[in-house]
């Protein structure tokens, strides 16, 4: 009988210590940066700022758009997300509590369709491809030096495209373009 009491006391001690160790005074803010179609946005810069203390943390979204900021002090935060080709996103009054994962998914809108390029070649083209690899738009670039190109995408449907810059027949740059109408 005495052995049973000791065993029960030992089990209770292990569970009590385990639960005390598992608790933390910090919280976690995590989510997925998405565009308005629901697609995850990789490489987005997320800045999280405590609205009371001004403490700031920056993280970058991963390949599927997910981000995670660990060990954040409990408090009320504002969040700024930005990604190439998209407008910035701002939110405030996000409550982070200790020992809890707070989920927040920023939704970014497509930004400008202007593309800045520098042409130093004899021939240059800007080509737009569908996600299946089909060329859907081509533009010859005649101006040398740095400049902006305005894409005329009226004939393209809403969706995700890739535009590539070719110089002297060689692909030198590539970016994703999300088009909403």
Secondary structure: elements and pairs:
Blueprint (H helix, E strand, L loop, with lengths): L1 H21 L4 E6 L1 E2 L9 E6 L5 E5 L5 E7 L2 E8 L6 E8 L4 E3 L3 E2 L5 E6 L4 E7 L4 E7 L3 E6 L8 E9 L2 E10 L2
Parallel strand pairs: 1-8, 2-9
Antiparallel strand pairs: 1-5, 3-4, 3-6, 6-7, 10-13, 11-12, 11-14, 14-15
Notable traits:
single chain; 181 residues; mainly beta; Immunoglobulin-like; 2 domains; four-stranded antiparallel sheet; 1 helix; 15 strands; 51% strand
Explain the overall architecture.
This protein has one helix spanning 2-22, and strands spanning 27-32, 34-35, 45-50, 56-60, 66-72, 75-82, 89-96, 101-103, 107-108, 114-119, 124-130, 135-141, 145-150, 159-167, 170-179. By secondary structure, the chain is mainly β. It folds into 2 domains: 24-108, Sandwich (Immunoglobulin-like), CATH 2.60.40; 114-179, Immunoglobulin-like. The strands form 5 sheets. A 4-stranded antiparallel beta sheet has the order 4-3-6-7, with no helix packed on it.
Q: Would you kindly provide a brief summary of this structure?
A:
With 181 residues, this protein is mainly β. The chain has one helix spanning 2-22; strands at 27-32, 34-35, 45-50, 56-60, 66-72, 75-82, 89-96, 101-103, 107-108, 114-119, 124-130, 135-141, 145-150, 159-167, 170-179.
């Amino acid at each position: 009988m005495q052995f049973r009491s000791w065993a029960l006391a030992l089990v209770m001690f292990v569970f009590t210590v385990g639960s005390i160790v598992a608790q933390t005074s910090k919280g976690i803010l995590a989510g997925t940066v998405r565009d308005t179609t629901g697609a995850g946005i990789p490489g987005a810069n997320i800045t999280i700022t405590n609205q009371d203390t001004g403490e700031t943390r920056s993280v970058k979204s991963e390949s599927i758009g997910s981000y995670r900021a660990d060990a954040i002090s409990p408090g009320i935060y504002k969040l700024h997300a930005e990604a190439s080709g998209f407008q910035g996103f701002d939110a405030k009054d996000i409550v982070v509590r200790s020992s809890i994962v707070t989920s927040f998914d920023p939704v970014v809108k497509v930004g400008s369709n202007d593309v800045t390029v520098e042409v130093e070649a004899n021939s240059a083209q800007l080509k737009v491809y569908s996600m299946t690899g089909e060329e859907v738009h081509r533009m010859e670039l005649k101006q040398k030096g740095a400049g902006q190109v305005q894409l005329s995408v009226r004939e393209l449907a809403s969706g995700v495209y890739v535009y590539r810059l070719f110089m002297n027949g060689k692909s030198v740059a590539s970016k994703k373009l999300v088009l909403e109408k």
